[in-house]
Structure formats: C-alpha cells, structure tokens
C-alpha cells in the first residue's frame, strides 16, 4: 500500500535498509527533469552518499539543443538545483554535460559540483568508475563500472548490465557494506517529463 501511495505522489521508494546503513555510498543518476529535484534532494538527505555522479542533461525538461532560446529558464532551474545541493556539504557532486546542457551556465551556477564537459573517471571505494553522457563517449580504459545515460538504446545486449549502467532506467546506489548495488526507480512520470509531457490524472 505504501508503494502505491508513493507512486501516486511521484516519490522515490527508498528501502529503509539503505537509509539506516551508515556505510559509504555512491549514487548515479542521469537525465533529470527539474520537477524531480525535490525528490533528488530527499534521496540525498535520507541516504547521505559520499558521492553523486550525474551523467548529463541536468535540466532534462528543457531541450537546449533544440530550443537554445530557453537558456534563461534553464539557468533559473540550475540555480534552484544548486540551492538544493548546497544543503549537502559532505557529499561530492560530479556532473557530466549532456547534449542539452550549456557549459558556461553550468560552470556559473552549479558551484557545489565538479563539472566534466564530456567524460571522466574516478577511483572510489567501490572500484574505478568511468562516466559520460553518451555510451559511445565513455573513456576507453579498463574500469569496474561504466556509467552513462542519454538513450535507452545505447547499450547492446552483449554487454554486462551490472558493469555498464544506463542511468535512464533507474538510479543506482553503490553501497560499501554489504558490497552491493541497489536500484531505486524514478517517479513514474519521469520519462514523460523528459519528453516535456505531464501525466494527466491517474
């Protein structure tokens, strides 16, 4: 019943075991419409991750590549996101730019984060992570995990989905102890918001 209510309210269903686990955590997310920013803030508040890696299209309800005249609104939403991030000084934030992002605006307004224009790698307690917005832009180096977003069609069936993680499908939480990856689904209408549509009724 609780899961049904949370689904109707467009909330993340975050397992209590993660919330109560004090060990180190890494969160991967991607392609986030601005309407879910409050839920992203709640997720970070409840799970206290050491690191959040966002693989691009930070304001995914504004398609700047298609509508560059919407830059002012895009910047306002970045400012809102930065305000939420600044509430978590103990969390490191990494953002990779997506095809609908604007480098100068992101550098100016996401002051709480490290910005990677195309791709990057980071060595963590969970292993070596390589990340990019698009699958084809991932660094060509041996890594434990490859994180990306952009398209559901990016990953081919012959690649291990536990190693090549498409953040469009769900948010991944990497937990130090026990050494595991837990998936948290986005609110139900997230894909519709990514396409500039809103759910109508129930």
TrEMBL record:
Pfam families: Metallophos
Domain annotation Calcineurin-like phosphoesterase: ranges: 25-189
Gene3D superfamilies with a match to the protein in the record: 3.60.21.10
Protein name in the entry: Calcineurin-like phosphoesterase domain-containing protein
Provenance organism: Fusibacter tunisiensis
